[in-house]
């Protein structure tokens, strides 16, 4: 079995060299629309911290926090200590966690487009509820719907991008999701900076603008072609080949189509996928898949991005300065993602991973030195 597996791997590598195709307009449009899902995720991350630093928003939904914030007799770090405010921010992530478990079988059984459309509709409903919120319950329900959209979007969009992209451009195009996420964060910071003085309804505009990319994602998802991989997996091989020819811009897709068909047959033989990934032969990949994103989040970057304006205010920044500093943070994140996209297919994933890790270590040590 081991020898057969190695031989099969060698055949697939040789076949991969025979892949034909180019960057077609169909792929470009599909990836552009699908990557909008990332921009909504980023927008929701970036918008929350700015909104929770706006006095009209706090006065309406969290009057206790509003009074503390404008009181000079309490530590800055304690002013935002409120369970309702914590529920507003954390409900999005909790809903995203739960909905991602539901999104997985939807993506597998009904296709990637189904998850993208479900995510877009959920985002749209969440944005409408937030912009029209008159009480805390309505506000949190909107956040939950946004979280559901994140669960479906994060499940379907990266997979869609990977399966639509030509092999030689897959790294860069798949990072469109990350680029869109960072662009969403930067846009949210800019929006908050512009709406902070639109009292008392500026926060509604900040939250409501999420409806624009959500609508684009929903409509785009309805018009996008399904990925060839998904069609083949669901027994629609001929249709999958036609889509593959269209998105590659050539009829010479035999090698890639054969690899997709073989991968689909292998996937369909696995009856218990979650049990299968726990087998010893899959543990290295499982550990890397779980630990790498977990360790990245444990650096604290998500908390910084989420609460940036609030964090800057607790450090003594004024309201405008805190939002402006958040804009700079978002801009650096966006520009660094552009550099990664330009170099990932040329330098490889491993070099970018190592260089990113070194940069994070240096920055963490430097912050520690500054504290003294």
From TrEMBL:
The chain crosses the membrane at residues 23-43, 85-103, 115-134, 140-161, 173-191, 203-224, 286-309, 321-340. The keyword Cytoplasm does not apply. Gene3D superfamilies: MFS general substrate transporter like domains. One of its GO terms (molecular function) is monosaccharide transmembrane transporter activity. GO terms for cellular component: membrane. SUPFAM superfamilies: MFS general substrate transporter. Residues 30-372 form the Major facilitator superfamily (MFS) profile domain. It is found in: Membrane. InterPro entries: MFS_dom, MFS_STP/MST-like_plant, MFS_sugar_transport-like, MFS_trans_sf, STP/PLT_plant, Sugar/inositol_transpt, Sugar_transporter_CS. Its main location: membrane. NCBIfam families: SP (TIGR00879). Belongs to the major facilitator superfamily. Sugar transporter (TC 2.A.1.1) family. This is Major facilitator superfamily (MFS) profile domain-containing protein. The lineage of its organism: Eukaryota, Viridiplantae, Streptophyta, Embryophyta, Tracheophyta.
């Amino acid at each position: 079995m081991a020898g057969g597996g190695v031989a099969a791997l060698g055949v697939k590598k040789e076949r991969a060299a025979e892949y034909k195709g180019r960057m077609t307009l169909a792929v470009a449009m599909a990836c552009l629309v699908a990557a909008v899902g990332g921009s909504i995720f980023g927008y929701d991350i970036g918008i929350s911290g700015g909104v929770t630093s706006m006095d009209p928003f706090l006065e309406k939904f969290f009057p206790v926090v509003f009074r503390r914030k404008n009181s000079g007799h309490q530590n800055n770090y304690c002013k935002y200590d409120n369970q309702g405010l914590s529920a507003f921010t954390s409900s999005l992530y909790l809903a995203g966690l739960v909905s991602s478990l539901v999104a997985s079988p939807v993506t597998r059984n009904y296709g990637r487009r189904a998850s993208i459309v479900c995510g877009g509709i959920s985002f749209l409903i969440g944005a409408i509820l937030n912009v029209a919120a008159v009480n805390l319950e309505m506000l949190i329900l909107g956040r939950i719907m946004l979280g559901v959209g994140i669960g479906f979007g994060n499940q379907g969009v990266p997979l869609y991008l990977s399966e639509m992209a030509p092999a030689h451009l897959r790294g860069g195009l798949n990072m469109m999701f990350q680029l869109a996420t960072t662009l969403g964060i930067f846009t949210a910071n800019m929006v908050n900076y512009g709406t902070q003085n639109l009292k008392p309804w500026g926060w509604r505009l900040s939250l409501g603008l999420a409806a624009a990319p959500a609508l684009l994602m929903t409509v785009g998802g309805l018009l996008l072609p399904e990925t060839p991989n998904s069609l083949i997996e669901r027994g629609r091989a001929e249709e999958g080949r036609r889509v593959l020819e269209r998105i590659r811009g050539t009829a010479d897709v035999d090698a890639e189509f054969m690899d997709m068909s073989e991968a689909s047959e292998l996937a369909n033989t696995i009856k218990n996928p979650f049990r299968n990934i726990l087998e010893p032969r899959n543990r290295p990949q499982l550990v890397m898949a779980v630990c790498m994103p977990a360790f990245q989040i444990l650096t604290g970057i998500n908390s910084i991005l989420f609460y940036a304006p609030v964090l800057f205010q607790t450090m003594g920044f004024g309201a405008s300065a805190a939002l402006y500093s958040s804009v700079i943070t978002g801009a650096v994140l966006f520009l660094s993602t552009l550099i990664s996209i330009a170099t990932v297919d040329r330098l490889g994933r491993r070099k970018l991973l190592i260089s990113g890790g070194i940069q994070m270590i240096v920055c963490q040590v430097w912050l520690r030195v500054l504290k003294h």
